[in-house]
Amino acid sequence: MIIGISIFIGLITGVGIYFFKSPFEKLALSSVGLLNVLLKKEKDDEFTSDLEKQVKSASSQLVIFIFLSLLFLAPTIWLFGFSNHHISDANYTSNTFIFLIYTVGTIVAFVLFGRYNKDQKSSSDYSFLSMLLHRMVLQNIHLNKWMLNKQIAGISHHEAQKNRTLLITGLARSGTTAITRTLFKSNQFESLNYSNMPFVMYPKFWAKWHKPKKGETKDRAHNDGIRIGFSSVEALEEYFFKAIKDDGFIHPDGLTRHDLSREEYETYKRYRTSIAGYKIYLAKNNNHILRLKSLYTNEPKLNVVLLFRDPLQHAFSLFKQHQQFSQVQKENPFALEYMDWLGHHEFGLNQKPFILRQEPNLLSYGEDDLGYWVERWISYYEYALTFDQPLFVDYQDFLNNPTDTIRNIGQQTGLNIGTIHANKFSKSESEVEFEDAFLRQKAYSIYSELVKRKVQAKN
């Protein structure tokens, strides 16, 4: 009988432990959300009142769960007291054995409920506490504005003016990650990396507490052969623009062009300086096309590398990534949250096109057709060609000879990048069938103009 009681109490304890996290998560998110509203300059009293009610509700639930957890402990205490006084002499029912049976019951319940939850909500590479921390930080823009002010405190206008910067941009899947990682190997640059998450607005604070192991430990979600780790540079700075603009350029139908005021750009320069110090600030950000005019207005000599590649190969790559990420995000909702927080709407369930002109975007095709992605390519690079300042870099040139490509960028920008001996990238082209002759002709006409404008080595 004692064995049955041990298993039963263990099962109850396991269930209690598993469900205890729900009110804890709700209380944590509501409390930080309330703090976020209190940090907002223009407060919404009704919204603040609702959050206060949520905090009180979550607190009440937590108190109830703590009380229930104590009730779970009562039979557990009784179990070991009973076994100690009455049946401790029996070999097969020793306290150690009873504790083992109890532990097994607890683990079984926890695993069974965890597996059920996994089937319902899918799994993630992130633990419960890690996901909670990301939600607490990244869901609250006004909290991040406060952290940004802490990050850039003490950095003067003069220091920010001396900051050297190289921005890497282009339509997603144009090779921006590969070229950013290759540049970073020169040790001349500093950039945001995965270890800064989720405190991308206050990385110097997070660095005091978070000491992750270096090295690239797994393939990234794109399944393109690129391995990542905490020290891998990545497109994380977009959160800065989301915060200072209060997500004002993100709409249900797409991402719109916007301008940065002189004050906002000054804050951006101080932010860059706070990250790079005396090194060159390096950032990969595919959304810079939305504010490229404003970037050059505020800093005419800003170094921007804009990558392009064969339009059909590029569009097909986007199409395949959209299918892959849509499936991943259906199975793992946290992956969708993560991309939305960082302003990555290039593909997936919340894909949003860039709205770059006043006239409506081409809408001949839906997202599940290759034609949609050809249209997106045309829209992006037709607009990009209206600028003279960017260094247009052909991704195929980089694949064929990365060392010369990096050297050419150094020559054109005047940045002391140094010599980087990089191996050629192996990238096989896909066979792409596309029957829309009009879009094909238009895309390759734009591609020809890009090739004419691409960066060339100085003699």
Structure description:
The protein has 459 residues and is an alpha/beta fold. It has 2 domains: 2-121; 136-453, Rossmann fold, CATH 3.40.50. It has helices at residues 2-38, 45-86, 95-121, 128-138, 141-152, 157-161, 176-184, 203-209, 238-244, 262-276, 292-298, 311-331, 333-341, 370-384, 395-400, 402-413, 437-453; strands at residues 165-170, 189-190, 218-219, 227-228, 250-251, 254-256, 280-284, 303-308, 354-355, 391-394. The strands form 3 sheets. Strands 2-7-1-8-10 form a 5-stranded parallel β-sheet, with helices on both faces. Strands 5-6-9 form a 3-stranded mixed β-sheet. Strands 3-4 form a two-stranded antiparallel sheet. A hairpin with a 7-residue loop joins β3 and β4. The relative contact order is 0.10.
Helices, strands, pairings?
Blueprint: H1 2-38, H2 45-86, H3 95-121, H4 128-138, H5 141-152, H6 157-161, E1 165-170, H7 176-184, E2 189-190, H8 203-209, E3 218-219, E4 227-228, H9 238-244, E5 250-251, E6 254-256, H10 262-276, E7 280-284, H11 292-298, E8 303-308, H12 311-331, H13 333-341, E9 354-355, H14 370-384, E10 391-394, H15 395-400, H16 402-413, H17 437-453
Parallel strand pairs: 1-7, 1-8, 2-7, 6-9, 8-10
Antiparallel strand pairs: 3-4, 5-6
